[in-house]
Design goal:
The chain has 497 residues and is mostly helical. The protein has a domain of 278 residues: Serine Threonine Protein Phosphatase 5, Tetratricopeptide repeat (Alpha Horseshoe), CATH 1.25.40.10. Helices cover 71% and strands 0% of the residues. The C terminus is likely disordered. It holds the Pfam family TPR_12. This is Tetratricopeptide repeat protein. Keywords: Repeat, TPR repeat. InterPro entries: TPR-like_helical_dom_sf, TPR_rpt.
């Protein structure tokens, strides 16, 4: 047992040496993430866990044992690259090491390699691949009594299932299973608070606000006993803010976003990409309050942080881009709005993303085109937005509005049959817009349809000028909640913010 503990301590020492090497070769972006990386170094406490040490007895073959040690040290480098925001380099190394780990036939190393790759895939918003890697880490962890590894993989997988793959019921159903694994791992590190956070995210996605708030508060309570502050506290505050924002409670939402931003800055520095998420939330609050110009700096800073960490084509950039499009459009800056909407559409198309943000960008670009007199282009964009909303099963006002505007423009262009089909789609919608139009007589002129639309859900709202305040913000799923992880050591990571 003493030999196992000495070997464990040597691995911790190697992890620290790797971090030092990364810092020596660091650029500005890496240095900005230095605090988080140093704070998340593996704990020495894990080297006192006899059950965990026994589960990781080295292979009998000296040559294999040596390769296991080398690959293990390299996996430590993967973790450092991840925590310092070097996702692309880290993912390339993780894939290579996972292949080598599988060839060695040593389950603890295979499980750790799968978990490391799963973390980076999740951070890179590659949900299908992340779920597969985490599922493999979970399977190996359970089969070989690697309790902390299994628990962490299970908790992260909850987030991927519910938030990234739109299967929140399946994610929530996995919570009791993850709770049992956390218990087997003796609540190592941040596993308990992390589980509460991700369970809260599932409850929120399913509309159970009371359960979500209780889970988030349980996560915060669990974090208060830590000797050092942890970024997980900030992400829970961000999630609470998003929950309030989704339900129109702007003041408590703003308060939570400010707390999350300040906490992130204090712990990981103001240049870390995690700071972008509460900044987007603050921009959303300003937008909902009609403070269009005031929202722009928050979105711009978030865009810069995300682009610096993930590159110019990553899906996370869509969120601040759509926010900037809305802000400029509502401030009467159509040309500027079109640039942001168009870039969001371009990123979504290249990544084959079809979510509410993509639809909102299409509809926003259509609004700008219609205002500029490009009616045919605007009609096509509204039709595309409607198609995306339909694919998502959306029954909300944004979908009805896209159909209504497509019909209005078709009628304006003399395409009466096409216009009639679009208006019938609006009437078929169960939302308030459809109900209001259903109460109106069968109308034939664009003016009459506009008048009927103006008596919709927002009273005197003029749908020609774009959606009223508060009606176009899609439910922010892809970045609203971040999944954090903790290994046998108290290390944290964002997944999909």
């Amino acid at each position: 047992m003493i030999d196992l503990r000495v070997a464990c301590l040597e691995r911790r020492k190697a992890h620290l040496a790797t971090l030092v090497d990364v810092f020596i070769a660091a650029d500005g972006a890496v240095v900005e993430n230095a605090v988080q990386a140093a704070a998340s170094l593996p704990s020495l406490g894990a080297c006192a866990d006899s059950s965990d040490l026994v589960a990781k007895v080295p292979p009998d073959d000296p040559a294999v044992a040596e390769r296991v040690e080398v690959v293990g040290r390299e996996l430590g480098r993967v973790d450092i690259l991840e925590r310092t925001g070097q996702y692309e380099e880290g993912l390339g190394l993780a894939k290579r090491l996972r292949t080598e780990a599988a060839s060695l036939g040593y389950p603890p190393l295979e499980a750790q390699a799968a978990l490391s790759e799963g973390r980076l895939l999740m951070a890179s918003a590659r949900a299908v691949e992340a779920e597969a890697a985490l599922r493999q880490a979970l399977k190996l962890g359970i089969a070989h009594d690697l309790h902390a590894t299994a628990a962490e993989a299970a908790i992260m997988r909850i987030f991927v299932l519910g938030n990234e793959l739109a299967r929140p019921q399946e994610g929530l159903a996995s919570v009791p299973f993850a709770e049992a694994l956390v218990e087997r791992a003796r609540g190592a590190g941040l596993l308990g608070p992390l589980l509460h956070n991700n369970a809260g995210a599932m409850h929120d996605l399913l509309g159970d606000v009371d359960a979500a708030r209780a889970s988030y508060e349980a996560a915060i309570a669990g974090l208060r006993g830590l000797a050092e502050p942890d970024p997980l506290e900030a992400i829970v505050q961000h999630n609470l803010g998003q929950m309030f924002l989704d339900r129109g409670r702007l003041e408590p939402a703003r308060d939570q976003f400010l707390r999350a931003r300040d906490r992130f800055v204090a712990i990981v520095g103001d240049g870390h990409p995690l700071v972008a998420h509460p900044l987007i939330g603050l921009g959303d609050v300003d937008l909902e309050r009609g403070r269009h110009v005031e929202a722009m700096p928050s979105y711009l800073r978030a865009l810069a942080l995300l682009e610096g960490a993930h590159g110019p084509e990553h899906r996370y950039l869509i969120y601040p881009l759509v926010g900037l499009g809305h802000a400029h459009a509502r401030a009467g800056r159509g040309e500027e709005a079109a640039k942001f909407y168009a870039r969001a559409v371009q990123i979504a198309e290249r990544a084959d993303i079809r979510d509410k943000f993509f639809a909102a960008a299409l509809a926003g670009l259509a609004d700008v085109s219609a205002s500029a007199g490009a009616t045919e282009q605007a009609q096509q964009l509204y039709e595309r937005a409607w198609t995306v909303y339909e694919e998502l099963g959306a029954e909300d006002e944004e979908a009805a509005r896209a159909a209504l505007r497509a019909g209005e423009l078709a009628l304006q262009r003399g395409e009466r049959e096409a216009a009639s089909r679009w208006f019938e789609r609006v009437l078929a919608k169960p939302g308030q817009a459809g109900r209001q139009l259903a109460r109106a007589p069968r109308l034939s002129s664009p003016g009459c349809w506009r008048a009927a639309a103006g008596r919709g859900a927002h009273g005197s709202a003029d749908w020609h000028r774009g959606p009223p305040q508060g009606s176009t913000r899609p439910n922010r799923c892809a970045h609203k909640r971040a999944s954090w992880r903790t290994s046998p050591a108290p290390a944290v990571e964002r997944g999909g913010v």
